[in-house]
Predict the structure.
Amino acid sequence: MKHWIRLNALALQRTVAAMVRHPLNHGLNLLVIAIAAAFPFGFYLLLSSVAAVTAQLPVEPQISVFLKPAAGSAEIGGIKELLAQDERVANARFVAKDEALKDLQAKVGSDDLLAGLTENPLPDAFLVTTRSDASAAALDALKTELAGRPGVDEVQLDSAWAQRLERLLALGRGLLEVIVVLLAVALALITGNAIRMQILTRRDEIEVAKLIGATDAFIRRPFMYAAAVQGLIGGLLACGIVVTALYWLNPAVTELASAYGQRFALHLPGPLEIGAVCLVTTLLNLVGAWLAVWRHLRRFF
């Protein structure tokens, strides 16, 4: 056991020493690994930030039906009956203008909204929540049908954009999965090629080691440690690139959101996410290194 620990410690020491002796070559490899890992990680954080906002939005499209001031009880009852029987409607609620004024006063925090006005300017309205599986054409048809009813002043179709945004996020998650798979394969190939070059430069040394009885595990060990160290450092560099980019972009994003009366900021990575990135890059590097060493040991030795 002590001998095994000593061999691993020696391999790790030689790996670090080689990286210190040749900082340029290893630095370029680390930069390639960091960029390859930073792109999907940043895309993931962007999707997470947008998803956190859309989770608070109503995904089901809503229709606001504003009534004319002269709308009578018969016209209101007709609209209520229509909405109750329509299969495209999930829920409908009548909001009287007095109730709407109270809600507005509660949100604004002021009871003087009618100062200088002789009467309540808000109209009676129906707030209609449609079914989530209703198509855009069906919603447009419902909007047109409601707009033609007696006593209706205006009809607005709301929250359809939230449904579209949810579908765009689903598309983004699918694209992220494809990007992760492609870059994972690319990262393993990059590492395998770098290890292959190291094997070729140390071929004479490996041949001598094989002649004096070195096992494949002994020969493979320093290359695996090199791949693991590069993967770990490359993952940390990728997280550093992403954090720097988010810090640089966040002020502009926050200012843009505030211009629309919203509060929004890009999500910064947490310790678990940083650990996951480092673990994935390390494992992918180990896979690429193991395949490269296995192939060359089998082919030349």
In short: The chain has two domains: 2-56+164-300, 62-158. The first strand starts at residue 62 and ends at 67. The beta strands are 62-67, 89-95, 125-130, 152-158. The chain has nine helices and four strands.
